[in-house]
Specification:
This protein is α+β, with helices and mostly antiparallel strands. The protein has one domain: 3-Layer(aba) Sandwich (GIY-YIG endonuclease), CATH 3.40.1440.10. The protein is built from four helices and three strands, in the order αββααβα. Strands 2-1-3 form a three-stranded antiparallel beta sheet. It is globular, with a radius of gyration of 17 Å. The N and C termini lie far apart (about 50 Å). The relative contact order is 0.20.
């Protein structure tokens, strides 16, 4: 087997941390919540989008532009335990249910969220 195929197979076997992450506006304590199937790399994608004015959440993008990146903090909120046999569709469905539940609880306590 060639090296390219071996690397591809090794990548497929890797396990990534899956769950919810947040970006918190330190000035207002407003939170942006999202999910990722690779929490180690989650912030890099959002940070790239924010730095380039491309983020899908307009309110977060506006605050980022006005306040600067130093006023925001990234953290992992919770991880989802996934069975080895779970399909991508099942994982995505579980993540949606997981974040909806989490957002609902935060809103009940009066937390400010970027929607």
């Amino acid at each position: 087997m060639d090296a390219k195929k071996e690397n591809k197979n090794a990548y497929k076997q890797m396990k990534f941390r899956i769950g919810i992450f947040q970006i918190v506006n330190r000035k207002t304590n407003r939170k942006y919540l999202s999910t990722s199937t690779d929490l180690e790399r989650a912030y890099n994608g959002d940070k790239f989008q924010l730095n380039n004015g491309l983020h899908r959440n307009n309110d977060l993008q506006s605050d980022w532009n006005n306040l600067g990146s130093n006023e925001f903090e990234f953290s992992i909120v919770d991880e989802l335990n996934v069975e080895d046999t779970a399909t991508k569709t099942k994982i995505n469905a579980d993540l949606k249910e997981f974040i909806d539940m989490y957002k609902s609880e935060l809103l009940k306590t009066g937390e400010l969220l970027y929607e």
